[in-house]
Amino acid sequence: MSILPEASRQFFASIIGGRRVHDFELTPEFVSKVEAYRDEVREQEGGGGMCHIVTDYLAEEYGWERLYVSYLSPSGEIICGGGHVINVLPDGSILDPTRDQFGEGFSVSHIKSDSDEIGRYRPEFYVDYHPGHPDASALDAWLPYYDGVPDEDVDTLKGGTREPGWWLSDKTHYNAYIDRQNELKRYGRTF
Q1: Spatial separation of the C-alpha atoms in residues 181 and 190, rounded to whole Å
Q2: What are the pLDDT digits (tens) for 27-44?
Q3: d(Cα 166, Cα 73) in Å, to the nearest integer?
């Protein structure tokens, strides 16, 4: 697999319907606000990434679209095969308010539509929505790279043998995230 920034750009632009004007700026105040909410939700829920709840809050607060995606390594391998939720902003850029869970040193990320980093986010491929499906022409750019396996099954088909954090050369941030998750579970909370 490979990351395809142009395919992701086009897909996210199709979600927002051609709107291109937006003046969002990722300020320290905004990041602090999102981090505080994210931490509060994780505390209440007993850990986990909580992308679905945080993006829902941002959708209600700012009117931004929510979208389930697969998050990819820089080489295009699936880290999180579907089930990760981001916000798509009116200019086709994306906001990932829980990117810290992937241990890459990010917290809240605003990925602009002209950044190649946007290619690390792509729509989730599943049985009824994948490149080549007659109702999913927006995904055709990925067709040469799609092997017919739904994203949720990719790790299972590889035997589930990858070690946690396999995509990282330095696991410092990832281990800190996992330690926090374990701490939340120790206090009697469940995922």
Answers
A1: 10
A2: 999 999 999 999 999 998
A3: 10
